[in-house]
């Protein structure tokens, strides 16, 4: 059965691919944040495990291809590994259910190792599934066409690539929204089970859709794997060359010619072509090392930025959607506009030159990321070192005050109802505070633990100066763009404070609450109950990643009067500043990735496509391993420096590749194949003539 000149079975395959990619990219989009905020790992461990997982996903395709070609055939391989995949996604979803081990109901898992174990099992199954399916699905799609449908087949691969990007685009938008929901049985949490559960459900849908089409597929029997033959041929050549290493044996033109005792000339010629291309692949992993950091380092960078786009709030993991959006726009634009323009300018952009340009652009993107990082670092607060203490002063009274840090370290004037920034002191030197306000003065002896921030609240009362030293239990900027809020009661009476859904409880006069976390970018209603009279106010917007102390001064009518004192400034660098680096990297991907596959196919014989596909995916895997090595080996404490390091490494590799490309000679595999066909025909003719002669001689006897 066919439809629009395409085999009907194709539509099942495209829908299956869409669901599978949705499932994979959706899970990958929230993965690094799941490690960081749910499993409570630090940035470096989260990045490391993320890249290990991605590397695994690109190593397993070689396994998938072997199973499909030598044993089960493509259809059975896809079905059986999809089942493994679906189970893996389901386990991931279960592993992120907080209530699984949260017996004391405090909102965080009691036994994290259970969750870690489950999610690692899930990830391994997913890597097996996605990797095993990857090489089979596109090839299985190609198998559905007849030999005379060359045009439709090419169009199919374009639609296939689009369905991959459509799946990844939708899931990178939708999954972070699901993650940002609050859900949970007993305590409200970020909704990771939903963010992993929807991809799991879609994978099940993909499997069902694929099986429904079963009757229509053209199923090619497994023909043995060419990769095994190529490896054997190479192995035999090396062994044979080593056996004949003494001077008396004549040299051969190419080391692979030593396999000619056992393997036919055609296989040897094809293997030579493949090795020529694989040799060019050696520098390519460096590109993927940079490219795949979008999901790890760049997402973590976005968590320290301001995601307020007017009407909509962008989650940090949603910035990754910039890539598939741009891909869908850029692929047609580059093909239809940019390449023809370059041709008009009489510049000959060979495939290898395009790949070189792609590498150069990717290293530029990392320079851009480093520049953004430098801007972010300028806005980050400085926290005290172990031997330092920081103190800020809030004057709660109606008189000005002078605070002297003794012995003679510093003196500060604080206007009424105002606060200072944090001031740093060596803990060992600071002994006491002299506070003068109005016509009164007190001396307060202090002993600080060191390595912490403190707030000093002072007020000149009728009875004298009240001075309260608070311990600010904050050692880092709030994560995920959340805000920290606490209250100080500056009323004579006790007040019961709630903000949004969060209760701060009873605050006595001149006492402070602890900090509590609020989601970023919104305004909440503050309600203070004084002597059972409610008094309220809608707070100002706190932005992302800030900490504020809110001083409750009085209640006039039923409206609260408050002062906001900023403890940590909100993220001020806008997430839109990440767009340039994403744009440059996407241009790099279009020039690099699309060209790379095309080039590989044009330079190798038709039956070797699988070997090259495996080699190409291998470069992605190695790229992710490079991230692990570089990030592990470089002891760079500054994130911007690490970005610059990666950019420099890729630039160096880019230059090496340019030199290699310069010496590369393009070939036409079809010509070489035709030559072999010609020789074979001649050989057959010769054999036939010899046979005829022999027959003639026999008949004359």
Fold and architecture overview:
- The protein is of the alpha+beta class.
- The protein has three domains: 1-224, Growth Hormone, Chain: A (Up-down Bundle); 264-379 and 579-677, MFS general substrate transporter like domains (Growth Hormone, Chain: A); 388-568, Immunoglobulin-like (Sandwich).
- Helices cover 53% and strands 17% of the residues.
- The protein is built from 15 helices and 22 strands.
- The chain has helices spanning 9-38, 43-95, 112-143, 150-180, 192-212, 226-243, 265-281, 285-291, 297-302, 322-344, 351-379, 579-602, 609-633, 639-662, 669-700; strands spanning 2-3, 6-7, 182-183, 189-190, 308-309, 312-313, 388-395, 401-406, 410-414, 423-426, 432-437, 440-445, 452-461, 464-472, 483-489, 495-499, 502-507, 516-518, 525-530, 533-538, 547-556, 559-568.
- Strands 10-7-13-14 form a four-stranded mixed β-sheet, with no helix packed on it. The protein has a four-stranded antiparallel β-sheet with strand order 9-8-11-12, with no helix packed on it.
- Helix 4 packs antiparallel against helix 5 (192-212), helix 7 runs parallel beside helix 13 (609-633) and helix 11 (351-379) runs antiparallel to helix 14 (639-662).
- The chain is elongated and about 140 Å long.
Instruction: Give the helix tally.
Output: 15
Give the number of domains: 3
- CATH topology name of the largest domain: Growth Hormone, Chain: A
Structural class category? alpha+beta
The CATH class designation of the largest domain is Mainly Alpha
> What does the largest sheet look like?
4 strands, mixed
Distance, first to last CA: 61 Å
CATH superfamily of the largest domain: MFS general substrate transporter like domains
Indicate the overall shape: elongated
> How does CATH name the architecture of the largest domain?
Up-down Bundle
User: Could you name the ranges where pLDDT drops below 50 across 5 or more consecutive residues?
Assistant: none
Overall radius of gyration? 33 Å
DSSP strand (E) fraction?
Answer: 15-25%
Mean pLDDT: 87
Number of distinct beta strands: 22
Q: Give the helix level as a range of percent.
A: 40-55%
Membrane topology: Multi-pass membrane protein
Keywords: Cell membrane, Glycoprotein, Membrane, Peptide transport, Protein transport, Symport, Transmembrane, Transmembrane helix, Transport
Transmembrane segments: 48-68, 75-92, 112-133, 154-174, 194-213, 273-291, 325-342, 354-374, 610-631, 643-667
InterPro entries: MFS_trans_sf (IPR036259), Oligopep_transport (IPR004768), POT_fam (IPR000109), PTR2_symporter_CS (IPR018456)
